[in-house]
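From the shared-data thread, chain only:
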Amino acid sequence: MAALIPGILQILLVFAALALCYRPLGDYMARVFTTTSHWRVERAIYRLGGINPDAEQGWRSYLRSLLWFSLVSILLLYLIVRTQSVLPFAGGHTGLTPDQAWNTAVSFVTNTNWQSYSGEAALGVTAQAVGLAVQNFLSAAVGIAVAVALFRGLARTETTQLGNFWVDLVRGSVRILLPLSTVFAIVLLAGGVVQNLADPVTVHTLGGAVQHIPGGTVASQEAIKNLGTNGGGYFNANAAHPFENPSAWTNLLQVFLMLLIPVALTRTFGVMIGSKKHGLAILSAMGILYIASLAGVIASELVNASGALHAAGSALEGKELRFGVIGSDFFAVSTTMTSTGATDAAHSSFTPLGGGLLVLNMVLGEISPGGVGSGMYGMLMIAILSVFIAGLMVGRTPEYLGKKIGPSQMKLASLAILVMPATVLIGTAVAFSLPSVRASLSTSGPHGLTELLYAFVSAANNNGSAFAGLSANTPVLNVMLGLVMLAGRFLPIILVLALASTFAEQRRVPDTAGTLPTHRPLFIGVMAGVALLVSALTFLPALALGPIAEALG
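Structure, as tokens:
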């Protein structure tokens, strides 16, 4: 109990900070994406790219711009990490192998940040700062742009226009991500996070060992890594490394950054559709799922700590001792409930039920609050499905925000929800059938299955965290996981933009006595229940063979 109170106070402190930022940041982001004025620096970017910022796009044109931009980003990042040996500040590092370069380029462009390499041992400063950090900004801005396009589709009537992808991308980067990242990079720098271009420092320890301590542009990358729910670590130990996460308060700051934009986007949604109560309803459903998971993981780890296993130190195995069990649990739940993927503890070392809950967080679709942008449009898919189910149950017309939900809308929403589980389960089954992949597991049995399942869940949800134990740097896994990342990122985006267009084309239907209220506590509970039900029905067999079997064994 003595250890419980400080941990709970830390959690409440982060929640209070999010509550203070919710309204001002949410309102600011709504103004960013609704104003018709352009900053001077933005106009310069548009002229350079030959873009007419005042011309809007239909969903197909919006999608083509997004896909071409992402394809070029993958090619450029692939070239950077392949040719880094000839770049300045390479630090003696050679280029990545073709399969690993492919995996890395796809990973960072899709906002996954899965790393089959050790950061400080594989990449130099230029590859990290010019390649990876730039994509941390751009991939996050793409996610926000898609969410905003869906907001416009729900808010507009009798139009085919969803905005301009290039304007949304530039504004998300220049007006939101860059200024916030600059401020928090300075804060992290003041907290002891490294930021330099110096060569590695060679030190001799008291035990006589020789260590080479690397530096790098860590603080600037750390800020956007968390703020953009990217998660890729500058060092192999990620947020457990003292150069990335020096103290307990920087640990809390990083959790705050992971949750900040996804939480505030619910306010942006409410402002842009003209109904703030609907934004609060979405946030409430997200909050129910998040708090339930956090309580479950903490209980699982503390219950384990109160028994005989505590005497053997099992509860602290794999945890970051500077932050304690609850600090590590808070970080782990936040990183798997968003698409961040950063880690300050080894998820493989959590108790079987605790580790199983971390997998469950991701198989929910990372919607509570989810990744930057992706969590918001993922939760709106759940809301649309909930309206349809609830409408059938009570005999009311399925409508959401005055827009009818017919066969076309349900097909698109259902497919968007089903992409991830289909990709995960098919990918895991195919990979597990390959002897080379089974040889990459650290153990056999349920825990080995959980390692592999976690990897494919992490890739398909564009999370990027690893369960540990899986030797992922093989040609087969690099290629397979890269394909899964692409499917998990872009197939839902295609469906979401098509769905946004079907809503934008409709005329708003006035509320009647038969309209189902979609902002009240009952519907909030339905959304949370549907999210759990869809995941439980889809993934229960796989979870039963993995973490549940291990817990009962």
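The radius of gyration is 23 Å.
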